[in-house]
Amino acid sequence: MAPLDTPMPRSQSMSMASVFERYGLLVFLVALMTVAALASPTFLRPANLVNVLTIAAPLGMVVVGQTFVILVRGLDLSVASLMATVAVLATAFKATTNEAIPMIFIAAIALSAVVGLVNGWLVAKRNVSPFLATLAMMIILQGIRFAYTGGAPISTLPPGMGFLASGRIFGVPVNLITLAFLAIAFGIVLHRSRLGREIFMVGSNPKAAFLNGVAPDRVVILCYVICSVCAGIGGLFLLGYVGTVSNWVGQGYELDSIVAAVMGGVALTGGRGNIFAALLGVAVLVVINNLVLLLGFPIEMQLIIKGVIIIGAAAFYRTRLA
């Protein structure tokens, strides 16, 4: 008879790890929703679920972009500050009709692309750590906002901004449509294009990618640009939801976007993950936040849970790579 402490075959252990990696988060989400439904019977009502998803949409947009950066072994701490800066930029348009909305989007995307370009250049060309480069950008953007607003909130928004939060097309919230478009479009880029293959190659092994004809610097810069553009778009939708501009609007999204991505299986070590699983991480994070409130726990509990998730995800992927 085999001893009770006989180690599990490595192949079987790896197989179980793969199953957990693929389906564990979905099972966890179902369990969380079950607990939330028991805590509040109204939680699973369609209207409430749509409302929860609507609130989560701006974060989902940021996570789409953050996924690209993490895949190439980076992170972007400037996304929340960029969201607030884009929101302030939107208030500079003094239009009286909805015709300003396209121009606001163009300006927001242009500003975001420049921010991403600078972040990517610092990381790829100047070898600045992603943490320091994006932290510096976060502080710079904060300074620009405070110089423009004087630290005071802005409550006068251009017409049409509210539509970004409450508008519907064929009964579907416009922010969810936008999130779906970004996820599908960038999902195709990531999994069905040459750039996507290069991103995974650079994230897995930059030196090997270079030897195979890939320009790692170009790929990294593009990932930071994509991340910033997604954050800028998310900032506009967040502005439409909150209805006023504070210098701290979006605060915490930099951490939440990283937590959601790693929960969804995007490896902090790079080269592993996908957008749609990362968005599942957003759903889990939003349900956790709601559950903390439903159960009457202190709001600080959310921060503790997020920290534990990051540590657990990092340990899990380190074990997988061992």
Report low-confidence residues grouped into runs of 5 or more.
none
Please list the strands of the largest sheet in the order they lie side by side: 1-2
State the total count of DSSP E strands: 2
Determine the CATH topology.
Answer: ABC transporter involved in vitamin B12 uptake, BtuC
Which structural class best describes the helix and strand composition? mainly alpha
Overall pLDDT confidence: 86
Question: What portion of residues belong to β-strands?
Answer: under 5%
Could you say what the CATH architecture is? Orthogonal Bundle
> For the CA atoms, what is the radius of gyration?
21 Å
SSE ordering: HHHHHHEEHHHHHHH
Per CATH, the class reads Mainly Alpha
Bulk shape: globular
**What is the helix content?**
over 70%
Q: Biggest β-sheet: count, sense, barrel?
A: 2 strands, antiparallel
Total discrete domains: 1
Could you give the distance between the termini?
Answer: 31 Å
Number of helices: 13
